[in-house]
Structure formats: C-alpha cells, structure tokens
Amino acid sequence: MSECGSERGSASSTISLKSDRSRGIPPVFSSEPKHSKTSDQNTSSMQQNQDTLKEFESKAMALVKEALRAHTKVLSAKHKEMFEEDKQEDVLDDQPMEIDEESKEAALKIALHILRSMNEDEHAHTLERSHYGEMFMYQKKLRSFLKSKNEFISEVTTQQWPVPLKTIYTKLYLIEGDNEEVNKEHEVRQIETAFNRRKSSETQIKFEDIFKPLPNEQGKPIRTVLTKGIAGIGKTVSVQKFILDWSEEKTNQDIQLLFSLPFRELNLIKHERRSLMELLYDFSPGLEESLITELKNFKVLFVLDGLDECRLPLDFKGNKKCCDPKQSASVDELLTNLIVGNLLPEAKLWITTRHAAASCIPQLYVDRMTEIRGFNNLQKEEYFNKKIGDETLAKRVIANIKSARSLYIMCHVPVFCWISSIVLGEMCAKAAGGKMPKTLTQMYIYFLSHQTTRKQVKYSEDQQLDSQENYKVFMSLGKLAFQQLEKGNLIFYEEDLRECGIDVKEASVYSGVCTQVFREECCMQHKVFCFVHLSVQEFLAALYVHVMYTVEGVNLLIEEPKQMTQSKPVFDLHKAAVDRALQSENGHLDLFLRFLLGLSLESSQDLLRGLKIQVETSNTQSHWETIEYIKKEVNQSHPPEKYINLFHCLNELNDHSLVEEIQTHLDSDRDLVMDDRSAAKWAALVFVLLTSPEKPEEIDLKKYSRTKTGLLKLLPAIKASMSAKLDDCNLTADCSEVLASILSSSANELTHLNLSDNSLQDSGIEHLCIGLQSQNCRLKTLRLNRCGLTQKGCEKLASVLSCPTSHLRELDLSDNNIEDSGVQLLSTGLGNVCCKLETLRLSFCNITEKGCVSLAWAVKSNPSHLSELDLSYNHLGESGVKLISEALEEGRSELTKLRVDHNSEHWFKPGLRRYACELRMDPNTAHKLLILSDDQQKVTHGVEEQPYP
C-alpha cells in the first residue's frame, strides 16, 4: 500500500498539461479475498466510484488544458522567443469541449496565478490585456491609484494616523440651489445663518447623485456641477469620499475614467504649456503607457477641487479656443476650454469652491449649483461619537460644548468639531477635568497648547522645549497667517514661507499647526502649505498682531506700521481693529477681531504664558474702554451682520450686559416696548432672537413696536422666522418694498405673513407681489384683511396665483372693497392650472351674482386644489349661490367648505354703511313736543303738543 501510494504521489507530482499519465492511474484494490455478497457489493460500488473519479479527472484536465491553450497562444504570439512550438497535437477527447465564460475566467485566474508565481508579470499583463481589453486594464490601475490616495485621512494630531476615511466620515448636508445675492458676512456667520433655515423647502442631494437629474428635471443634461461651501466645511473630504467610492466600484459606475485635478497643484504649473493629454499624464500614472489615446470615446469625469485656491486668471473671454486634447496650450487655456465645453464636450466636471470664488466661472457654464451646509445637530453628535470612540466621554464633550452657544454654532463646521474633539476630549478624559473653554479664543489657545505638547512628546522627549524656539515658530507662522489673511489666501508655497523666515522642515515637523501637503507626481516635486482651517489662520494672525503691538511696539493695523517710541494702551490697537472690521465689505476680519479682543483678557494671557509666549499684563482700563467703544458702535447704523459680530466680540471680552437685560425681559413673557429704546438695545434684541437655542418660530411686531421703525429694526429676525405677525402696526405702502426684499431673499424662511389692518393700498400690494413671485418666496399663508385693496391690487395678486413657483396655499382678502371686477381679475389666476391655492377668503368684499360667474368658471377650470371658499357677508343672491354650487358639482371640485351665510343686499354697501339700518321713531314712545315726518324718519321740535298716545 505504501509503495502504491508513493508511486501515485510521484506520478501526480509530475503531471503536465501535455501529459496523458494522469489518465492511466489504476484504482487500488484490497488484497483480501471476497467472501460475501456484501463484500461483492462494496467492491462494485468502489469500482463505480473509481470510474467516476477517473472520468472526472480526465474531463477536468481536458477542460483546463483546452482553456489554457488559448492563453498560451496569446503569449506565444506576443513572446515567440519564450515558447517553442509543439508540433505534436495532443488529443484529449474525441470531441472538442465547449467552454463557457465562467470556465474561461477561472482558467485565466489559474494562468495569471502561475505566471505571477513565476515572477513573469509582463506575461501576466499581456494575457490580462488580451482578455479584458485596454480600458479595463487602465481602469484597474486608475482605481488602485485613486484608492491609495483617498482611502486614508491624515489627522495630524493623532498618534494613530493615517485614519481610514470610512471610520470617521460623516455624511454632510448638500442642497441644490444658488444664492445670487452678494453675501457680506464672514463665513462663520454664513454657516450660522444657513442653519437657522428650515430644511423642508430645500432640495437635498446625495453626493453620489450630483449628476443625476431630479424628478422635475428629467431630460436635462447635467455636465458641470459647482459645489460651494465655506472653508473647512468638508468640500475636499467629500471629494475624497466620492473618488474612494468610485475606485471601490460602489457608486457612479457609469463613469469609466475619473481624473482629479486639484487647483492647488495646477498652480504649480501655471506658467507651463502642454496638451490636455500631457496634463493628465502628470496627474494619472499609467495613462501615457496605456493604449488609450482618445478620451472622447469614454465617459469621463474631471474633479476640480478648490477653485478658491486657484492662482490662474481663468480668462474665459480672452483665452484662445482649443478643441483638440492633443493641442498644446497654457494651463489656463486648457481649464477654460474644458469648463466651456470646447474640450471633451461630453465629459462631466465637478468643481468645488468657497462662495467668494464661485463667480469666477460664468453661470452659463454651470448646469447645477449646490452647497455644502456642514453638520446639523445630529451629525455633530455622530461625529463626536465616531471621533472620540468612547460614548460616555463623547457625551461629556457634547454637553460641554452645548453650554457655550458660540462654540456650538461653530460646530456646524467639521474642522471645528475636529478641534473641539481634540481639546475637550483630552480635558474631559482627565480626572480633574479643569476649566473648560467658553469662548473661541480660549478654545484655540488650548488647541495651540495641545500642538505644543504633541511636538514636545514626539520630537523632544528627553529635552525641555526651548521657549525661544517656540516663540519663534508661533511668530513666524503668525506673520505668514496675517500676511496671507490680508491677501485672502488660504494656501501658500515654499517661497511664501521663506519670505516670512520659516524653515520648511520645521514647518513640516510642526504639522499640528501647519499642514504640509506633499504631491509627488513626476512633473511637480513641490510642497504646498495651508493652515488646518481658516479660523486657525485668523487666530495665529491675531496672536501675531497682538504680540507685535504689546511686546514689539508695532501697530500692524495702521496704514504705515512703525516702531512706537513709547508704549500705548492696547485700546488703540483694538479701536483700529474694530474700525477695519466694520469697514470690510466681506467681513473677512470679523473672526480675527474676536480673537484679537479675546487675547487681551487676563485668563487668555495666563494660558499664553504657559506656552512661553511673551505677553503684557492685562490693562483693566483698556479693557473697559474697548467695551464702551464697541457698545458705541453697536448704537450706530451698521448692517445687521456687523452689529451681530460686535455682540460676539463683547462675548469674547466677557461682557454680556446688553444681552442679559434683553433676555431678562423676554423670559418674563411680557411685551417689551422698544419705541424709546436705543439702537444698541434693538441690536441686542435681534442678536438674542437670532442666536437663542430655542429660536422663536413667530415674530409678533406688536410686542415690541407698532411702527415702521420697529419693522426695519427687526428685519433680520423676521427674515429668519417662519411666521411674522405684522397686523395693526401702522405700516404703509412703502413698507411693502422692504417686505418684498425679504420674500425675494434666498435666506428668508417666512411661510406665514399677516399684514391685516395696515393701510398698504394697491400700490403696496403691487410692491409686495414682486416678492411673492420670486422663486425664493416660500410663503404659504398671506392675510391682507382691511388693507385698502381694490380691483387694481387683484390684478397683481392674480399673477401671483398663476406663478408656477408660488407656494401660496391660503389667501385672506376679507373686508377689502374689491367688488365683482376684482373677483373677475382674481379668478383668472385662480383658474390657472399652476394655482395651488387651497383656501380663499373673500368675506365682506361687495361681491354679487356677477362675481359668482367668474368664480364658478375658475372652480371648473382648476378643480383640483381649492378646498375652502369663504363668500360670507356678500350679496350673492340665490342665483349666485346656485352658480357656485353647480360649478362644484360639475367640476368635481375638491371643495369641502363653502361659506355663503349672511347673504343679504345690505352687505353690498361699502365701508361702515353696510352696518347701517333705517331707523323710525315710534309714535307710541315719542315726546308730545316732537313732530314726526317723512315716514317717521325725521324729527323736529315743536311748541304744540302732538296727539300721540
């Protein structure tokens, strides 16, 4: 048995694809005699099994050999010197075997495995390319390359980096739509304003669906998508996740080729000329070696991340036209022609940018505008739980950050969540905990402290951190931060660092403060730098300006900075900073100002001394002078975004007096009459209403003022609320222009508006209708009772009802003298198929049977939506009521509530006369000296007694 086994093992080990030996291996029988029927049956069964196995082995080898022969032919044709032709044909079976696709695929994997185990990678590649084709082979290489670049996210402060993107990625909030208004707020205020909005009226889109048309856009081609978002909101990480999902074949598999072209890398070759194909060779390894020469035959996506970082002119008007991907041109010309569609018109483009740079691309070339909103409240908690990894600790961190409103607002920005998780996670993990940061300035000082500690642990374990070195690094980075902030740049290059006296290697080592981005493509061996977030840049810039003034005696915020001969109070610096921030058109110094003021507190300076940063002793006099100066500015006529930031500044200075006074009144649930209050108190009221954790759903102007002035003061709060009660507030026609501007604003949230009992007149309604027809108007309910409306105003309202974008569902025009002519005009809009109005109230409107004819037509023409119609207190007559009723039955209307009560002729009289009645003196009760005449309706005094009973 052992010899037989050995022989069989030897035979098996030497079987080749061209050997028949495997077919002749005999079965092994027992040498013991067969003495019973059972034994004979067992022997027969064994024989049958052996025959089956023999046939299986024969067919399996034939199948493999037949399949592999095809691969051998491919290799022999490509590499003739490696293969000797086998002149002797091997016949494995009388009939050739049919091989299905699955078997071919399996045989290919066997062949590739064998070749690679032989280190014959070139032959394996030849075989694979022959089987799958050139596109598949390059796709495979491209996916592998993109996956390796995007599967990790480098968290420079963790000891366990790189971190897999999947473990920390939290899905962001992406909405469709464009804000065409020029936003003059700092980016932090923009995100705060955005999250004050209700999301029901916005169209949310998944990142993987950005090129798919919405249900109401079927047939609309989407070539170019522009995604906006503030710095640090997650644009680049979202791009990274999108590319990773594509490379792992999870989403967007209709896209065959994906090329990532970050603007910060394109800047490095902005002076060079090359063709589009040559440009792609630099960014996509393996493309040049592949046989792909024409991209127009494939579905291609270009991802252009960071338009705001672009240092190319993007001259859409002046650049030469280029239609050939192989034609040499400047990088700027390549980009503009790609965006316009001259180059690869069938390709898709995804461009990301901060808001300010979005206008660099003409809207003509953008098919879809989207915006990243950052984290909502639930996503904040999801992020902290993922990042911290300890549910109990994460809850403590979340509770602490919720206790500071200004910090919680900032957590809409993912990068600030990251900073907060580092600082608070470390502090909450300690047994003592310590005093938690309550202001932005404190949070960023603690963050800086964490970076310093990390540097000492990682690079100077056995050395005391050199205080001079620490000071030098902070000042160098601060100088860079301030200079780049002045220029509006978030990224910078090696030459920028050298100008500021920063050693590039030291900047790389100190990666917790300055993130270094390495790109090692063959044509661009350069380094690009940026701060981890714009707010970190603003903080370091403020720190640098503060130290330069208090220690070095140089005020960098005046036109010609120079060394001061004698020290001056820090108030002078603060005043200059406040003035410059108020003068800034785009609010780019708002956060810088908050940091600069916060650094002057004694508590902040104690923390800075712990970092070996030289600071002066806090000056109490300057502190109070700064507070008073800010309060004086709050009292001036500044735009809302300016005075709101000034209140944030007061918070950094630990002064809450104005806000607390207003909050106390609001908490008492009593009306807060503001007519005699200062502008500062009005500003404080708006600030409280806008930043309150429980933001009021409804603003009732009467609680504060019944004047146009009150309306203007409360506009920011009204715009952010869902409902505004402005009835009986002495508003006139010119107020309608202001309200129309609110309704036209993309930031408005109003869905319910009550303007009853205000003398708006037709001219005011005309202005209001401009806002009502805006695509940004979300109004569902509008009340205009007793507003002096006539038929002229009805004509404008009919246009609103006919507007396809109108959200209006309830309209109350009661007690206006619109008459039949007004109803006729109104009915043209009501009968339009675009009208979605559900409730219409026309009580006390002087309507007769003639008006009912128009309404009946409207109900029959558009029966699908109107469910309530109030025609009470009009002179409809029986015929008028019958017309309406028949129209409802005939048109199969959705109307479920029709009010026609108090249907009398006297209600047809206008104004107060409708309430008048004919009075007669009763002779039975008249005085005998009164003379009755004119059917007892006229009474005169007489001298003779009358014969009354």
Automatic annotation (TrEMBL):
InterPro entries tied to this protein: B30.2/SPRY_sf (IPR043136), ConA-like_dom_sf (IPR013320), Leu-rich_rpt (IPR001611), Leu-rich_rpt_Cys-con_subtyp (IPR006553), LRR_dom_sf (IPR032675), NACHT-assoc (IPR029495), NACHT_NTPase (IPR007111), NLR (IPR051261)
Keywords: ATP-binding, Cytoplasm, Leucine-rich repeat, Nucleotide-binding, Repeat
Origin superkingdom: Eukaryota
GO CC, one annotated term: cytoplasm
SMART domains xrefs: FISNA, LRR_CC, LRR_RI
Gene Ontology MF term list: ATP binding
UniProt xrefs under PROSITE patterns: LRR, NACHT
Comp. bias intervals (Polar residues): 39-51
Keyword Repeat included in the entry's annotation: yes
Domain NACHT, first and last residues per copy: 223-354
Major place of residence: cytoplasm
Subcellular location: Cytoplasm
Disordered: annotated span: 1-57
PANTHER family assigned to the protein according to its UniProt record, in alphabetical order: NACHT, LRR AND CARD DOMAINS-CONTAINING
This protein's name: NACHT domain-containing protein
